[in-house]
Amino acid sequence: MSDNIVLGVDIGGSHITAALVDITNGRILEDSTHREKVDSLADAGQIIQSWIAVMSKSLQSAPNSRKIAIAMPGPFDYENGISLIKGVGKYDALYGMNVRTLLLSQLLDNEHEISFVNDAACFLQGEISYGPAAAYQEVVGFTLGTGFGSAIGQGGHVFDADFWCHPFMGGICEDFFSSRWFVSTYNNYSGLKVNNVRELILNVDLGGPLLQVFDEFSMNMGIFLTQLYKKYKFECVVLGGNISNASTLFLPQLKYYLQTMAISVPVYISSKGENAALIGAACSVL
Question: Which family does the UniProt entry place this protein in (predicted)?
């Protein structure tokens, strides 16, 4: 058994990733990373089995502390391990269930300790522990993907911010900063039909409508960050999630907008990528 090796797990809307993390230096152990697609609309038994299959592969890669830290999307009762996710197109079958108990019942070694942490908070924790954002005391981080994850870092400690439901432009932030907005806005402007953001990012030559969508996103994000800065006076911004992979299409415009509003803070794209949440989750057990 190795006390400094923790299994970090990242639960996404359509996948699970797991890896063993050395929490003394934030490094992921070689050959311990495993990722698989998950049918988030399946029944509870199938979902748990698919998660267990991936976690078990990683746990077998090296001696570990038997501690498991899971980056989980909300809403979720993180302390008690109970899923509160419902009506958002994923994991409805787990609603009201004790996920910790379900996982422990399926693991071959039931001596494991399982903790749950908000996925956006894990992402930011990984970045401020071992990325460029470590140089700042007041940090805000956002994951741009299926949903709009958000977290605040203060003096190295991270808190889930729940900005997804923050009022914004007659709706809430998730209406403007999630993949659903990108897809619907592009389809509206182009008269075409794409099914997800991946299709947009892989087809950057789609021309005018695509650039229009990202320009609009840049403006919206700039407006939101300007509003947020008045309250939190953050020193830097970190962006992650699948949409951040297309940063060349929006980051210059976003930075320019912030400069025009006299907000001279750096905006970083995640330095750890998909590993940020794994590292952050594992470090949360310290």
Answer: Belongs to the ROK (NagC/XylR) family.
Backbone angles phi, psi at 155, to 5 degrees: 60, 35
Q: What is the residue range of 245's domain? A: 132-269
Residues 140, 212, single domain; the answer is: yes
* 67 strand-pairing partners: 113
Residue 110 has pLDDT above 80, yes or no: no
Neighbours of 31 (CB within 10 A): 11
Q: At which of 82, 98, 120 does a domain end?
A: 120
Residues in the chain: 286
Residues 6+ apart with CB under 8 A from 170: none
Residue 205 lies in a domain: yes
Distance between CA atoms of residues 211 and 225, nearest Å? 21
Using the predicted structure, report yes or no on whether residue 245 has a pLDDT greater than 60.
yes
**Residue 137 and residue 265 in one domain:** yes
Q: Which residues pair with 240 in a beta bridge?
A: 143
Q: Look at residue 172 in the predicted model and tell me its pLDDT.
A: 95
Contact (Cβ atoms closer than 8 angstroms) between residue 8 and residue 18: yes
Per the listing, tokens 């422990």 go with: 104
Degrees to nearest 5, angle at CA 118 with 77 and 223: 120
